[in-house]
Amino acid sequence: xxxxxxxxxxxxxxxxxxxxxxxxxxxxxxxxxxxxxxxxxxxxxxxxxxxxxxxxxxxxxxxxxxxxxxxxxxxxxxxxxxxxxxxxxxxxxxxxxxxxxxxxxxxxxxxxxxxxxxxxxxxxxxxxxxxxxxxxxxxxxxxxxxxxxxxxxxxxxxxxxxxxxxxxxxxxxxxxxxxxxxxxxxxxxxxxxxxxxxxxxxxxxxxxxxxxxxxxxxxxxxxxxxxxxxxxxxxxxxxxxxxxxxxxxxxxxxxxxxxxxxxxxxxxxxxxxxxxx
Length: 277
Hints:
The structure is a single chain. The protein has 277 residues and is α/β, with parallel strands linked by helices. 43% of the residues lie in helices and 12% in strands. It has a 6-stranded mixed sheet with strand order 2-3-1-4-5-6, sandwiched between helices. Strand 2 (58-63) and strand 3 (72-77) form a beta hairpin. Helix 2 (87-106) packs antiparallel against helix 6 (219-234), helix 3 (124-137) runs antiparallel to helix 6 and helix 7 (243-254) runs antiparallel to helix 8 (259-276). The termini are far apart. Residues 6-14 have low confidence and may be disordered.
């Protein structure tokens, strides 16, 4: 889904370079929508209850500023809320993954992943979200920035990283950069100063990452890998079995793949599953 947004009345000229693209991901409730609003300086994204959401569903927010060098496209995505998924969830996730991959391709690639986590311990679900987006979707090719939220009550927000860096990296999460922030102003603007400090940190990080070359997106290879890895690591029941026909229908009707391409993809998944048994 695309949300048309204009911030600080900027006119986008066709001669201007494309703005960088960033995927925001993480568990439900970590503040992804609040991060979008922090970056925009406006209430653009509504927090999701998750009741009607599907893993890998995404909403695109093109955010523009008076300084066009700060313009960004944000893809706010729905992550995993449990370390596994059933067959129905898997098929729905494939459709949303295909939509996201095609959108990134059409926008010129992806410049960075913004992994939102709340301050605390690293759970299995956090680790699986990391694998889902960094390893499976982006094939470890896209720079990952860690955004640690919920730090408004810390005496020094940046100290959290100093104290917890080893725990994060021992969990297998190694970002190229990080920010320790709050996304709220609090009651009677109690955290307003920290809110604006956080916004400055995030905008500077996006500018730095956006100055790098985008990672190009090959729709075919990215989607094939996603199909295989999702099933291998997140679906507890092995083997396509009776779901093979449903998956074929999903790939051809909802993802718009040619039937021969869909059949070839299913064969690759089957071969990989045979190898694992």
